[in-house]
Design brief:
CATH class of one domain in chain B: Mainly Alpha
CATH topology of one domain in chain B: MetI-like fold
Structural class of chain A: alpha/beta
Number of strands of chain A: 12
Helix content of chain A: 25-40%
Number of helices of chain A: 11
Radius of gyration of chain A: 21 Å
Oligomer: heterodimer
Strand order of the largest sheet of chain A: 6-7-8-3-9-10-12-11
Strand content of chain A: 15-25%
Largest sheet of chain B: none
Shape of chain B: globular
Number of strands of chain B: 0
Strand content of chain B: under 5%
Chain lengths: ~325, ~325
């Protein structure tokens, strides 16, 4: 059963320099208990998508121009204010990217966690406090630190506080926006483990936003690759890692240093991400795509979403028919061999 | 914390010495002898010299300055007024309370009006209300204080006859001076609250608060306001000091028996020793208000509190320059 279904979501920002097309007609769904990785470069629209789910896009300048976000059969974008408030933090909660700025500097961490508990659960103040202490201990922060302010914690501890806050009400869906990006590598693994463990305890779904393919391989069941506000490839982790179909995804893999191959230089994707106020016609990736020259259609027409194998969607003209894709993969195999 | 307060009070001493030296020097070299006004313009030079000797203003600069300080330190007096023949402190003490009342009320008036309007302007950024309040604030800040006083007097005193035109016959007498003094601070407080609030509501922790499912009003008043108030406190604290001591114009126009009027009259009458006393008291008030403001930060922001108690220098030394 799908917990979350995003259909045809588009988000625009109206700025002085033009309309930023941050998210363009994306479709995404997430099953109960599943972890979906949303991968892409900085500026691909990952965070905006996540904020869109909770209807937290700052407006103005942001605006959700089209689409539906269906959570448990209800369109989140059509909910009344109080219904939305009940879902935010209670059923869907979010872990933000930068723990340094995500906590309010003038409230103690205890207050900030207790606040969300008493907001969504009918319980006395004492019960809320007890629950808060439980949560802190779950993320391995001693209870006596509840009365401390965020500036008295290290970055990793702050991120754990943010996680405790997000998980305090046993949400059905967690949106984790690059939860490990701001942290040291040693703490990254710890934090990921913690999220996964807490997730398993309460059969929660997780939308994990990251630009780290390693993190995806480790903790996700499915992955969606985002480029210039579009999902260019989506499928199970095996589909994405072993049967990579979209040239952009291939480019991403080529730019990861590999331990078992002896390569002197990495192969970064040529060119830069297009200006989101002025996206190219046709396929958004065609100016950087090594195959675009072969197919004139790339710069003319926007590709459809092709389902190359069940559950594996690719937005590329080269996948317009199954046979072609096969030959492509064979060719790729020869190249590698 | 106590150590910090003690150190700040110690630091008042050089500031006050500086204030006294400056005002004394200006008076000393003003070329007008206070004795001239007391003995009359047609008096003989002998009479004038005798009067100057009586007042002690015929002595050299350093001797007079030293004796002024000595009187304060050893005898705790600010000298005797040339004109009123009364101790200067007696003149000030009966007037001080009136000025403090007006200044305090004006500062509170500015905070009570300015902060909510500033919040509203920030929350409804780029709305008609935002633009209207900006225009009103600019007008309020640009109008000269004496003109505002006269217009208030003309309209509320003469036309509507709801407040007394001059003096303090009853509590209503306070209203116009408070409004006239508070006008500029209202504008300053409002603009500062607006810009500070606008900055805060774009912070990540406000997004976190929204993501928790809090109502917008809770987000604004619990999470944003406390953070936004820190720079606003600086302005309110400065206004407290300024309006308690800067009411010379409104007190003179409305004929309010306060420190400002005494200062104005003593300057007109060349009663320099009274002027010095008034300026010194005003300087003490401004310095104390700055200290109170700095301490108020600690109650709003735990980070600053931590710095006070750890004995480190706090980050902001707001308005110390203004005090000097």
């Amino acid at each position: 059963m799908n917990v979350l279904e995003i259909k045809d979501l588009s988000i625009r920002f109206h700025t002085d320099t033009g309309v930023v097309q941050a998210v363009n007609h994306i479709d995404l769904n997430l099953k109960q208990g599943e972890t979906l990785g949303l991968v892409g470069e900085t500026g691909a629209g990952k965070t905006t998508t996540a904020l869109g789910v909770l209807n937290l896009v700052q407006s103005p300048p942001g605006e959700i121009t089209s689409g539906e976000i269906v959570y448990k059969g209800k369109d989140m974008l059509k909910l009344k204010k109080h219904e939305m408030h009940a879902i935010r933090g209670g059923e869907i909660s979010m872990i933000f990217q930068d723990p340094m700025t995500a906590l309010n500097p003038v409230l103690t961490v205890g207050e900030q966690i207790t606040e969300v508990i008493s907001l969504h659960q009918t319980c006395s103040k004492a019960e809320a406090t007890r629950h808060m202490v439980d949560m802190l201990e779950k993320v391995r922060i001693p209870a006596q630190r509840a009365d401390d302010y965020p500036h008295q914690f290290s970055g990793g501890m702050k991120q754990r506080v943010v996680i405790a806050m997000a998980l305090a009400c046993h949400p059905k869906l967690i949106i984790a926006d690059e939860p490990t990006t701001a942290l040291d590598v040693t703490i990254q693994a710890q934090v990921l483990d913690m999220i996964n463990q807490l997730k398993k305890e309460s059969d929660t779904s997780l939308l994990l936003i990251t630009h780290d393919l390693g993190v995806v391989a480790e903790s996700c069941e499915r992955a969606a690759i985002m480029y210039a506000g579009e999902i260019v490839e989506m499928g199970s982790v095996e589909d994405i890692f072993d049967h990579t179909a979209h040239p952009y995804t291939k480019g991403l893999f080529n730019s990861i240093p590999s331990l078992d191959k002896e390569i002197e230089r990495l192969k970064p994707i040529e060119g830069l991400m297009p200006d989101p106020t002025n996206l190219p016609k046709g396929c958004k990736f065609h100016p950087r795509c090594p195959f675009a020259l072969e197919l004139p259609v790339c710069s003319q027409e926007e590709p459809r979403n092709f389902e190359v194998t069940p559950g594996h969607f690719v937005k590329c003209h080269r996948c317009s028919n199954w046979a072609e894709t096969l030959t492509m993969e064979e060719k790729e195999g020869e190249d590698n061999g | 914390m106590t150590k910090y307060i003690f150190r700040r009070i110690l630091m008042l001493i050089p500031v006050l010495i500086g204030v006294v030296v400056i005002i004394f020097t200006i008076n000393f070299f003003s070329k007008v002898s206070p004795a001239v006004l007391l003995v009359g313009a047609n008096a003989t030079p002998e009479l004038l010299a005798a009067k100057e000797a009586e007042l002690g203003i015929d002595r050299p600069y350093l001797v007079q300055l030293a004796s002024y300080f000595w009187n304060i330190i050893a005898h705790g007096t600010l000298g005797t007024s040339y004109v009123y023949r009364q101790p200067v402190w007696d003149l000030i003490s009966v007037r001080l309370l009136v000025t403090i009342k007006i200044g305090f009320c004006a500062a509170m008036f500015s905070a009570i009006i300015g902060i909510p309007l500033g919040i509203l302007a920030a929350v409804k950024q780029n709305s008609i209300f935002d633009y209207a309040s900006t225009i009103v604030a600019i007008v309020m800040a640009a109008l000269p204080s004496f003109w505002v006083c006269l217009m208030l007097m003309l309209f509320f005193g003469m036309q509507l006859k709801v407040v007394p035109i001059s003096g303090l016959p009853n509590w209503k007498g306070y209203l116009m001076p408070i409004i006239a003094t508070g006008m500029m601070p209202v504008a300053m407080t409002m603009r500062m609250t607006r810009s500070s609030m606008l900055e805060v509501i774009r912070q990540d922790y406000i997004r976190t608060a929204r993501a928790k499912g809090l109502k917008e009003s809770t987000v604004i008043f619990k999470h944003a306001l406390k953070n936004a108030l820190i720079p606003v406190l600086t302005v309110v604290g400065m206004n407290l000091g300024l309006s308690m001591t800067g009411s010379v114009i409104s007190e003179t126009i409305f004929n309010i028996p306060g420190l400002g009027l005494l200062m104005n009259n003593s300057i007109a009458q060349k009663d320099f020793i009274t002027t010095q006393g008034c300026v010194l008291v005003a300087a003490i008030i401004v310095c104390v208000m700055n200290l109170v403001t700095d301490l108020a930060y600690a109650f709003v922001d735990p980070r600053i509190k931590a710095q006070y108690s750890s004995g480190r220098r706090p980050p902001k030394k707001s308005g110390k320059e203004a005090a000097a």
